[in-house]
Specification:
It is globular and about 55 Å long. The longest helix is centred in the middle third of the chain and has 18 residues. The strands form 2 sheets. Strands 2-1-3-4 form a 4-stranded parallel sheet, with helices on both faces. The protein is an alpha/beta fold and about 250 residues long. The model has no long low-confidence stretch (mean pLDDT about 95). β7, α7 and β8 form a beta-alpha-beta unit. The chain is built from 9 helices and 8 strands. α2 crosses α9 and α4 crosses α8. It has 2 domains: about 130 residues, Rossmann fold (3-Layer(aba) Sandwich); about 100 residues, Rossmann fold.
Length: about 250
């Protein structure tokens, strides 16, 4: 199968981290492609930035339609994920949704470790939207400016591990989610430094969409994820117009 991972941010260094972890996680024969947003911000921390990222992700999914069998929105918070499910006939997931699915199979309660304080409110809202707020112990995050989004793991690895250990000892977490594409692959290097399972969003997403593809679900033709009704539009890219024109 062919998996397209869309980085809704403009950071090529983060796209490299996404690609490396996706390739490590994929089954033999699975093809990995990573597409970086053509516009937007270096990394998403706020609701408004997430809205921009959702648009950027939709554009990339539309431009590359036909070249993939599944899509991963490769940013924590899953900007645009549910909207893409309305217009794509293939499996679609995101780093948050996939990481949460893994976490609740590994323990009862989980904590999220993130790269910035500002991001916490949006992450909490995302967890609540997935109906798992009651199983969230805490969201702990770094509290200093990031020198380089692509080198967070090297620059802040020890602090991230310390935060994760506090989630276990002080908050009672059974599972730790290392949140965000900039932390892709970190769980492999720190797993032995933590006393509970550690979940990575990229590896979870790749393996979950492989499972969904193997299940061969029918395309949604009714309900809330049916394709949007056909109506006049203006100012959209030709690729988005094509997606909007898909019929149930």
């Amino acid at each position: 199968m062919r998996i397209l991972l869309i980085n809704p941010n403009i950071s090529d260094s983060v796209s490299t981290l996404i690609r490396d972890e996706a390739v490590r996680s994929a089954s033999p024969g699975t093809q990995i492609e990573v597409a970086t947003a053509a516009f937007g911000v270096a990394y998403i921390e706020t609701r408004f930035e997430a809205m921009i990222g959702a648009h950027a992700a939709a554009e990339r999914a539309a431009e590359l339609e036909g070249s993939y069998d599944a899509v991963v929105v490769a940013a924590f918070g899953d900007p645009g994920l549910l909207a893409l499910r309305e217009v794509l006939s293939c499996p679609v997931t995101g780093l948050t949704e996939a990481a949460l699915a893994s976490a609740i199979l590994l323990g009862q309660r989980f904590s999220i470790v993130a790269i910035s304080q500002r991001i916490r409110a949006w992450y909490r809202e995302t967890v609540d939207a997935y109906g798992l707020g009651s199983r969230l112990c805490s969201i702990r995050a770094l509290d200093e400016p990031l020198a380089d989004i692509g080198s967070v793991q090297a620059d802040q690895g020890k602090r991230l591990v310390a935060l994760a250990n506090r989630c276990v000892t002080e908050d009672g977490a059974d599972v730790i989610i290392l949140a965000g594409a900039p932390l892709a692959g970190l769980s492999r290097t720190v797993r032995d430094q933590l006393p509970v399972p550690v979940v990575d969003g990229v590896s979870s997403a790749v393996q979950h969409v492989e499972t969904l593809f193997a299940l061969n679900p029918v395309a949604t033709r009714a309900g809330s994820f049916a394709p949007p009704p056909i109506k006049p539009n203006k100012g959209l890219s030709p690729a988005l117009v094509r997606l909007l024109g898909r019929k149930a």
